[in-house]
Every structure is written in C-alpha cells, then in structure tokens.
Amino acid sequence: MERLNGMKRTKGLLRLRIGIVVLALLSGYFIVDAMLPQTEAKVREAKSEQVQSQANLKPPKKDKLVALTFDDGPDAKYTVKILDILKKYNAKATFFVVGYQAEKYPGVLSRIVKEGHMLGNHTWSHKDLTKLNGQQINNEIVKLNKVIQNATGEAPKYVRTPYGAVSKKVTEAIEQNGQHNVLWNVDTRDWAGATPEDMLKNVKANLKPGGIILMHSFGGKKGDLSNTIKLLPKMIEELQEEGYSFVTVDELKSKSS
Ligand SMILES: [Zn+2]
C-alpha cells in the first residue's frame, strides 16, 4: 500500500511538473510574441538612426560644384553682360578666350580676373589644332599666353582646344607649356541657337556634380548669343536651388580630385 501510494504521488507530481512546463512554455511563447513588435520597432528605429547619420555624412552643399565655361570671347557686348549676371549671383566662371578678341579687349580680360573668374587659352585664331604641325600648335598657344599675361599678370593654366579637337601631338604641345586641356561634359548648344528652355532642360538632365558646362561669350549663330543671356540667370537660380556652387575650372579640379 505504502509503495502504491508512493507511486501515485510520484505520478501526480510528474503531471504537475509537466503542467508547469507546458504553462511556462506557453506563457513564454506569448511573452516573446508580445515583445516582438516592440523589438522590431527598436530595430527599425536603430536603422533609421543609421540612415540619418549616413545622411549627415553626405558632403555639405558647397561641395556640389559646377564650372560654367564661356568660349570665344572676350567682347564688349555679351561678355560684359555675362560678367554682370555672374556678379549678381556671386557665381564664378572660366572664360576660354581667343587671341584676336583678347587683343582687342584687354580691359575686359582684366575685369574677368579682377572679379574672381579665370581665364583659359582657346588659342590665337580658333583653328583645328589637329591639322597643324607642332610649331604651329605651339604658336597658337604661346602667343595668346603672352597677351593674357600682359593684361592680367598671369599666364593661363588651362587650354581648351577649338571644337574639342585633340590628338597626341596637340596634347603633347599643350603639356610642354605646363598647361592642361580642359573640355566639357554638358554642351548647352548655345552656339547653334538653342532656345533658353531647351538649354535649361538639357543642363538639368545631364549635369552631375563636378560637371563642366559649355557656353559662349562671343560668336554663336549669326553672332547672336541673346539666348545665352536669357538662360544664364534662370539656370544659375535653379542650380543654386539644387545646391550647386559655381566655381572656376581650377577650383573644380582641385576639389573634385
Ligand atoms: Zn570655340
């Protein structure tokens, strides 16, 4: 009897233990289940903090740089209007001038430099340099370097070859003078008489930080660059709203590399 009672007690205890374990497991399941959404929320919160801190690591707005470049000037009509607009918006630009124009307007050359812009060498007579021999290429560049140096006290650091035409010989001639050739990534096609609306659309579709925009300050279709003058304030305003700063080619190169 004693043994039987003992066995019953043992069975009873066993059932009780199983019951407790099942209860504990069930309540544990519910507790864990109830906690899950909170944990997920915490994970989400941590993730969003991470995203935010990554956003804080993005370069500040001033590093979203663009270089406006104006070719073929200077002149007394469009170049001065461009300089007035740039001054109004505190935007800096680079003017790739040609020799026969630079010789006529030394005052505009020195104004360009005085107002914080940069001068580049667009050759003496705007010829396709790939069709010239080494000596001729050198003359096209050196003659203009001297005119710029006389007007401003400094020889230009950069060359832009007319029509963007380049060959190994042309590059070698430029680099022998300690200069570098700089082309562009966005062509406004102001030289072809594009409308201000089309030019703005083109720039906004193709410009990336570190971009170089091609425009003109002399020449254009039938000598008319009035669309460039109409486009410029609107383009500067819209790009400044997007966080762009307008800098010279030199500043762009030193900060983008
Ligand atoms: Zn040109």
UniProtKB/TrEMBL annotation:
The chain crosses the membrane at residues 12-32. GO terms for molecular function: hydrolase activity, acting on carbon-nitrogen (but not peptide) bonds; metal ion binding. Gene3D superfamilies: Glycoside hydrolase/deacetylase (3.20.20.370). GO terms for biological process: carbohydrate metabolic process. Pfam families: Polysacc_deac_1. Residues 64-247 form the NodB homology domain. One of its GO terms (cellular component) is membrane. Keywords: Hydrolase, Membrane, Metal-binding, Transmembrane, Transmembrane helix. The keyword Cell cycle does not apply. Coiled coil: none annotated. This is NodB homology domain-containing protein.
